[in-house]
């Protein structure tokens, strides 16, 4: 029986040793088991019979990933990190800074580890930049795991 802890070239134990990897860059009907992988699967059928071999193959294959997870991982490699981070901040803004603060402000961009926040009117600009600035800065820093170092408030519609 094949060893469950066989080590591949990278030195890590191989848990999913029945994955089809040799043709992973191919598509459609060409993305099937290679000759070596096919021989390995036929050998399992000979050893265990077709019913048991099917169960063993399912145990040894990597679990299926959700399509959304695959798309997210590709987008994280393609889209700049600041865009992903600002999107996460925008989605969770109310939970990060509180409902009242979120109602009158919104994060618009990250430039050199500084979050720029648009504020809807001058009175809230004063309140956020004086009374709540330290709390918002700490909350944003905690949410982004230290990737955002500072927060700047600006009037709505004005770009720098």
Question: How would you describe this structure to a colleague?
Answer:
- This protein is mainly alpha-helical and 160 residues long.
- It has seven helices and three strands, in the order αααααββααβ.
- A three-stranded mixed sheet has the order 1-2-3.
- The radius of gyration is 26 Å and the shape is rod-shaped.
- The relative contact order is 0.08.
- Mean pLDDT is 81; it is low at 1-7.
End-to-end C-alpha gap: 66 Å
- Approximately how much helix is present in the residues? 40-55%
Radius of gyration: 26 Å
Mean of the pLDDT scores?
81
CATH topology-level fold name of the largest domain: GMP Synthetase, Chain A, domain 3
What is the H-and-E element order? HHHHHEEHHE
- Level-2 CATH architecture of the largest domain: 2-Layer Sandwich
**Into which percentage range does the β-strand content fall?**
5-15%
- Report the total helices: 7
Biggest β-sheet description: 3 strands, mixed
- By DSSP, the count of extended strands is 3
Q: Biggest sheet, strands in spatial order?
A: 1-2-3
Structurally, the number of domains stands at 2
CATH superfamily of the largest domain: DnaA, N-terminal domain
CATH top level of the largest domain is Alpha Beta
- Which spans have pLDDT < 50 for at least 5 consecutive residues? 1-7
Structure classification: mainly alpha
Described by the principal axes of the CA atoms, the overall outline is: rod-shaped
Question: Any descriptors?
Answer:
2 domains, 3-stranded mixed sheet, 160 residues, GMP Synthetase, Chain A, domain 3, mainly alpha, 7 helices
